[in-house]
Write a structure and sequence with these properties.
Elements lengths: L12 H17 L3 H16 L21 E6 L2 E6 L9
Antiparallel strand pairs: 1-2
């Protein structure tokens, strides 16, 4: 896939807060800042990786999520849920 055929990945504010809260919890409460940083990097890489062929992640088998075309990506011990709102970003 060329650069012009990449999908734009938008992380919603609620998801951004969830990620921040998880990373802060691991860093502060569990006192594992290196693990928190590693998880933050991995989540960011995997989420941004959805810009290429997001359909490669299978649909959730359970209704109503399957009908709504919701997919679930596993990143370490966490799940990233995303929908099939595929719009190709145009580059000039």
């Amino acid at each position: 896939m060329t650069e012009s055929n990449r999908y734009e990945v938008i992380v919603l504010p609620g998801a951004q807060r969830d990620i921040r809260d998880i990373v802060l919890y691991i860093s502060r409460d569990l006192m594992a800042p290196a693990a928190a940083l590693a998880l933050n990097r991995k989540l960011s890489e995997q989420i941004q990786g959805l810009s290429y062929m997001p359909e490669r992640i299978k649909l959730i088998d359970v209704e109503p999520w399957n009908q709504k075309k919701i997919r679930r990506l596993c990143v370490k011990n966490y799940y990233v849920y995303f929908g099939g709102f595929w719009h190709i970003r145009e580059t000039i």
